[in-house]
Amino acid sequence: MQPLVGAAWAPDHILRIANATLAADCTERQSVTINGTSPGPTLRAREGEDSVWVRVFNDMEAENTTLHWHGISQYGSPFADGTPATSQWPIAPGNYFDYEFKLAAGSAGTYMYHTHVGFSVVTAYGAFIVEDSDAPPYDYDDERVVVLGDFYYKSDYNLSAGLLAAPFKWTNDPQALTVNGNAYGECDSEVKACQSGCHTEVVSVEPDRTYRIRVIGATALSFLYMALEDHPSFELIEVDGDYVNTHKASFLEVASGQRYSFLLRTKSLDELRALGKTRFWANLESRWRTTRSYGAWILEYNTTELPGDGADPYSTLPHLNKTIPLPDEAPFWVMNEVTPLDATQAPPDDSEVSRTIFVDGTQLNSGPSDAQKTFWQTHGYMYSEEMPATPYLIQAYQGGLTIDYDAAIANEGYDNTTHSLPVRAGEVVDIVFLNVASASGTLEAHPWHIHGKHPYVMAYGLGEFSEEAYAAARANMTAPIKRDTVMVYAGPEGMAYSNTTIPQGQVAGWTVFRLRADVPGAFMLHCHIQPHFTMGMGTVLLIGMEELPPLPEGFADQYMTYNATSQDVPASFFALAGERVIRRTS
Ligand SMILES: [Cu+2]
């Protein structure tokens, strides 16, 4: 629903978040959708444009929501980042919220939007593509978007309630892996309500072309490996919204929150004729968990000159792990070799780094064994989207947020009063994520996601973190790239999938971000595995809170108070024609 796009009074996009029944793999599930579907519509904007304005309506009857622009830097617009308790009051049922932000030059790439309240993110997401202002640096004929997701039969409420319950109830792995919202499934109508027509996602291409395939990790849990039948290699060109020098790879690794683009050269008619088929499987398998999930999508050649044959979107998946094998778990993948396309792009120099901040995500248990809770802490604190009662950024705009930098600096960067990591505007910090063995001596691989801007990934390591280990790992890194979602590995000893343990509290892996804190605002820093985040695996960066940008004119009316926007805004913007109801002045 995008009436009169471009008219002076209209938002660039209107998104409506609502409850609806989905049946990705033919099994019905009450879900949260955006404009009626999962994924929601693919939004496109151009880098360097004045701004993007998206009006988001909460059409749900009883649930709050927010919408986060995953990977988008929020220079000058921290109030548009879309996180409850941190950047805004949640959007109350019946309310709307205006997100308006700029897309800086150089930000062209692949992003997503998703809700940031409760477990609704499992289906409430969509692709957000920032197009180049000029021709892209790589030649391709066309592009395709592949959004990877997890499909659970349990409701959002049951999933998160179990994670917070005593005794703790794990979500388990998803019942299906979706691609652009689709998966083939054989629904059991004696157990669940079923729909018909579900199928493996089909991505159509023409022969003899070059495609940019944009892959978006919108899974709630799964870290997916992916490879293509009879298409043994492709070239990586983008990582999390930044172009990289082409890097050949035979398979892709996509964690929750990560995005990649690769160039795929499609086969000629002669090659297809020789292979005797026009539809090819893409194999998807999860890694780094005790059990593996399996999924697929299909690359289909659009041609009338050959009979359609090959992968069948309406059939049970064959054992693709036999025909399109994917490797076992191994840390780092190609990340030490990938380099930025812009050769002038380099992290701030060591001499600029003022201090090191540690983020020690640790899984703990409490209570008797028959009613045991399991949760994640950072610096001894379990993050909750219910706290603080007034969001950090609202507190700051009210003039009521006091930052104690000295207390934080004395405590590895963490301030125990505000439960945050305060950083002065302009400071350069190294943020070290530690992978710490749990109370039961186990470890997992975590995709840590930073809001606000993209730091440089300086180095990855296994084992204990030390200055010597950091220096050695940096020497191993060809050239740091920027990204917003980075793996923190560990193992193999102690990894959940390896069925071994190590002593509780032992650090078994780490990753370092280097951040120039030039984007004032309150920004989340959290594991993008939604169950871990629900269990408390997150914290908040408070950057230069003394130097926040002013609120746009008229915006305070909807921003400073919960439940402040009209319940009576017409469902269609056509009904508003003639009224100037916006804060944009151009
Ligand atoms: Cu995690």
TrEMBL record:
<keyword id="KW-0186">Copper</keyword>
<keyword id="KW-1015">Disulfide bond</keyword>
<dbReference type="Pfam" id="PF07732">
    <property type="entry name" value="Cu-oxidase_3"/>
</dbReference>
<dbReference type="GO" id="GO:0052716">
    <property type="term" value="F:hydroquinone:oxygen oxidoreductase activity"/>
</dbReference>
<dbReference type="GO" id="GO:0005507">
    <property type="term" value="F:copper ion binding"/>
</dbReference>
<dbReference type="InterPro" id="IPR017762">
    <property type="entry name" value="Multicopper_oxidase_fun"/>
</dbReference>
<dbReference type="InterPro" id="IPR011706">
    <property type="entry name" value="Cu-oxidase_C"/>
</dbReference>
<dbReference type="InterPro" id="IPR035666">
    <property type="entry name" value="MCO_CuRO_3"/>
</dbReference>
<dbReference type="GO" id="GO:0005576">
    <property type="term" value="C:extracellular region"/>
</dbReference>
<keyword id="KW-0560">Oxidoreductase</keyword>
<dbReference type="InterPro" id="IPR045087">
    <property type="entry name" value="Cu-oxidase_fam"/>
</dbReference>
<dbReference type="InterPro" id="IPR033138">
    <property type="entry name" value="Cu_oxidase_CS"/>
</dbReference>
<keyword id="KW-0479">Metal-binding</keyword>
<keyword id="KW-0964">Secreted</keyword>
<dbReference type="InterPro" id="IPR001117">
    <property type="entry name" value="Cu-oxidase_2nd"/>
</dbReference>
<feature type="domain" description="Plastocyanin-like">
    <location>
        <begin position="143"/>
        <end position="268"/>
    </location>
</feature>
<protein>
    <recommendedName>
        <fullName>laccase</fullName>
        <ecNumber>1.10.3.2</ecNumber>
    </recommendedName>
</protein>
<keyword id="KW-0325">Glycoprotein</keyword>
<feature type="domain" description="Plastocyanin-like">
    <location>
        <begin position="410"/>
        <end position="543"/>
    </location>
</feature>
<feature type="domain" description="Plastocyanin-like">
    <location>
        <begin position="19"/>
        <end position="133"/>
    </location>
</feature>
<dbReference type="InterPro" id="IPR002355">
    <property type="entry name" value="Cu_oxidase_Cu_BS"/>
</dbReference>
<dbReference type="Pfam" id="PF07731">
    <property type="entry name" value="Cu-oxidase_2"/>
</dbReference>
<comment type="similarity">
    <text>Belongs to the multicopper oxidase family.</text>
</comment>
<dbReference type="InterPro" id="IPR011707">
    <property type="entry name" value="Cu-oxidase-like_N"/>
</dbReference>
<dbReference type="Pfam" id="PF00394">
    <property type="entry name" value="Cu-oxidase"/>
</dbReference>
<dbReference type="InterPro" id="IPR008972">
    <property type="entry name" value="Cupredoxin"/>
</dbReference>
